[in-house]
Amino acid sequence: MPRLLAGALRLRRDPRILKLPPYLSLLCIFVGVVWLLLLPLNDYSRRTYISENALLPGQVHTYFGGSDQNVFRAYKHEVNALVGKSNIEINDKLESIVKGLGLKVACQNFTYTSAGRVYSGENVYAILQAPRGDATEAIVLVAAWENVQQEVNRNGVALILTLARYFKRWSLWSKDIVFLVTPDSIAGPQAWVDAYHDAHDSARVDSLPLKSGALQGAIAIDYAQEGRFESVHIVYDGVNGQLPNLDLINSVVSIAGGQMGMGVALQEMWQHNDQYPDRLRTMLRGMLKQGLGLASGPHSSFIPYHVDAVTLQPFGDGWQDEMAMGRVVEGTFRSLNNLLEHLHQSFFFYLLMQRERFVSIGTYLPSAMLVAVNFTIMAIALWVKSGQPESSNNTPTPPASEGETAAPAASNPAVERDIFLPLGVVTLCQSVAVIPLYLFNHASESLLTPFFVIFALLNPLLPLILSNFLTTTYRPTTQQYQLIKSFSLLLLGMFLASLATLNFSLALLVGVLASPLTFMRPWPNSDAMRIACTVLLNTVSPTSVLVASAAYWQLDIGTVLREAAFAWHVCGMYSPVVVWCVWWPAWLAGNVIVLGRPDESKGKEKVL
Amino acid sequence: MRQLFSLLLLSLLSFVCSASSDYHEQLVLRPLPLSALLASFDFRSNITLSAFETHNFRFFPRSLGQILQYANTRELHLRFSLGRWDAESWGARPWDGAREGGTGVELWAWLEAETDDEADHKWLTLTNALSGLFCASLNFIDGTRTTRPVMSFQPEGDHPNSTENMHLLYGVLPHEVVCTENLTPFLKLLPCKGKVGIATLLDGHKLFDASWQSMAIDVRPICPDDGECVLQIELTIDMVLDIERSKRPRDNPIPRPLPSHELMCDTSKPYHADDTCFPADYSANQDWTLSQVFGRNMKGICPLTDPAVPPVCLQVPHSRRVFVSSGVVEKKNADGTSRCFEISPKADFEMIFPRPEKTDGEEGNAAQAEIALADVVKPETPLLYAERSFTGHGQERGGVQTILRNPSPDTEVEFIYMESLPWFMRIYTHTIEAHVGGESKSNGSLIEEIYYRPALDRARGTQLEMRMRIPPAATVFLTYDFEKSILRYTEYPPDANRGFDVAAAVITILNRGEERKAAYTLRTTSLLCSLPTPDFSMPYNVIIFTSTAIALAFGGMFNILVRRFVAADEGPEAGLGKKLSAKLSKVLERFRKKKTAVEEQK
Questions:
Q1: Using a CB-CB distance cutoff of 8 angstroms, which residues of chain B are in contact with residue A134?
Q2: Beta-bridge partners for A315
Q3: Looking at residue B361, what is its pLDDT?
Q4: Pick from B244, B390, B565: which is nearest to A2 by CB?
Q5: CA A268 – CA A282 distance, rounded (Å)
Q6: Where are the domain boundaries for CATH 3.40.630.10 in chain A?
Q7: Cα–Cα distance for residue pair B574/B181, rounded to 1 Å
Q8: What does the pLDDT look like over A92-142, one tens digit per residue?
Q9: Which fold has domain A53-355?
């Protein structure tokens, strides 16, 4: 051991060691990405299993059916008659139907404003009090009047009414059941859940007049499709990439897939052959959704409050009818009803790649961590390098001007680091980032696109201006450029490493897109390299990535920004903070470095 | 012959006993709106204090009597409750809320003791003995769950002397699940043991399938002005049965969908068809029979009961027709809304409650609902509605909000609000605030008096009593914040992630004018408080992880810390072996030198 350490100490002084970090960083990025690609393989992913024994999914007979279908048809007529009417009229009718069933009904108004648009409506909800319970726990069944695609959830609302009538007959409920019908899929549930936990802004959202106990789980039905269906699509992404407990998804898979014999799909993979390409595609879609952090359905708003929730969406053309969907919900509710404790066993951090295969955080986290660590390695290397005197590129041996003895330590005299300017530049970059963050979250809808166009045009010019200003005013040395890069990468690495534990996918996406920043340096002698690097950086800038992805999914950039602003205001999505305050400043600093022209003479003077 | 004589004497004696009205039992049935049925069973017996002290228990259950004597208990109230009373639809509570407790088990008693310590000791004896008697975990009522209410409870009985040495102790177990194991010992306390009389209707399956049920035992001394003091024991069971659910046969309790021709449809809908049915209003106008609802017949009446008290009474308007089995005499009371039945001792009692006849032209839900309401006695509006819930989220702190609504348009309500909170909910008293709905500022005049006894960690819980006054037709929001403390690893129960039950708040509405007696009592629902819970497999992982880390890293690290590294040729020789070998080599060298010198000399 001591010999090894002595060797390591000797190695530290070796000048070759400082040449290593760029390669190490590159290796980290490479390993990180390859790691991710390996995950769908059988050896690295695991089969899902039910961890909470109390759930017992698919172990009970479901009785929903028979004459309940007659009732469902009647409710369907009632719902069809309401299509196109105002929110208040719809709620009045639903309220009278549910009251007739003997449930307690209440309404809640909400009004959100985002990007100059007003999102308002009225939620209506009913509480089926557990026959022998004491209002300590509750589970929620949600149906939004309009789903995320703005289709009217005709079957879903009719089904929720029929199920309310059916559930009322059972005496075995140990938890209250809340039936919630919201006018839309995102704002309505968000307003309701916020108010349920008294976390709402009472100026925008009304308090709930009627409450039950602690929410233990929620299921949302999104059944806008007419006719029979083949499979159930489970939507599980929460706001900010938070996920429901894996046990809940597994229970639904086991009930719908195992007991009812339906297909189960995830992440809009309507066909899945359980081979590597499909698994990878499912996983990457999941990661993209997680990374964006948008609400994907009525269930999304529940997850931040530690209420596990999923949306069930029937799709395809098969022979399953509405009653089968009702039985899936019944089976899931029976399972949730069995819970003695809040869902806590299983996993909250996972990537699903097929309905029965997943990887847990311990397996996938190294991937994002390695990508984040590459920045930190480079930052540390630059810090060390900036403390050593500059040597001219061609002669590795130091000029023996002082003519001292040949002790190895003496060849590396510590150099004073001039950190004021680098710190100032990095701070400036970070603080300028508040401008786009504020702009894109507070501008009104009509101004979003013009603002973005102006910003996207200014974006490549800004580093030029900043760099020009720096070189003319302060004439930074190579060391100062190194320090700017070091600080900027240090911050980036730190932010991404901690983000990886919260939202793995976002950290990995930003990390990979920002990875060229590791290798940026000033090119004082080569204009071609400078231009090439600038072009490269501008293609992976936040704005161009945004434009490119909007074009790829054929979305209007104004719509994307409006949705982002809506999610920021209503759901509390933090992805814009990561983009504008973590990624963009690092990008800006990186571009400034590329365009920089270090003042060599000044640096030399300092050493002497 | 002698045997026959003694038998005769015995029967004569029993007749005399029953005539002396020491025991009576009564069942009161009251149909409630939304097809619910309130059944109140009341069993009451008296014993003179002198007989009690000489262990001549008669109708008083001996097992309970001895416990009371041993623990010097002067007055005892024990409650087993399940479910919740739906005041919005069912109105005021039976017995004005005096015979019910919060969810779980509640016990309060007045003990006679010289000091607090002695009272605590006797309380411990009492809870442990009752725990064995009623098969309930009453022995878990320890110091942390016991409070000494100051304003809330007043003795119900007469305590002419010995008021100074009486200690009131109150304990509650909100998480206790009341079940058949508690009913069996309860029935054993009755003189007729559930074999005959109204107690035969008490079937565990039906009782614990009720939407709300409360079993109560009250023991109190009563001193009439003209006679000897008696000790009265009153056992009551109140339950609200969902008629539709109760009518299901016991061998087929699953609510399978009805065959479509039996479905009650609203035929006025335009789309009504054979396969489309808008259901008629929720089970309006149920018809039922006593044996359907309770699962069995009532077998005669208990021979010990006071014949002057009718065993079964029914509270419905006189217009409603009720059929009873033969040999039963129906007596309608003067108030127009109740009738009682005289039952012959041996005959089984059966009652049929038919669906009321439809008057002409009644289709549609609204009309039916009106009839349904007209067929039951209109529920009395309670003096106060109370609803309590948690606010906030997360595992660090939270808040409690109680919404108190005074429905009366002209009278204000004065009451005492009592909370006994577990010690791990540390409340911030400065955040206690009451404001009338609609006003944003807190109103200082609502809370008149606060009695607060702070919690001691792991020793006693918080006790908070507030005397409040609510103006007419007002809704008051009473809120306070609390902090959740972190328990020790071993203090968590096996189902730690379920959360911790917080007992119901007790609201005692004071009688205007008369200070001592409560006009109405109600309880909120209990709450489930989730505390920060560790991942219990984590310590295991941590131990393994840290052991490995220490084993691998610490050794090397320690080595580096305590050593100085120098080049091999620079430093002094070190180590015992090296020193020895160096000395040895020196000696050897000297020896060799001497040798060479000698040789040279030679």
A1: 82-84, 103, 525-526
A2: A231
A3: 44
A4: B565
A5: 8
A6: 53-355
A7: 80
A8: 999 999 988 888 899 999 999 988 889 999 999 999 988 877 888 999 999
A9: Aminopeptidase (3.40.630)
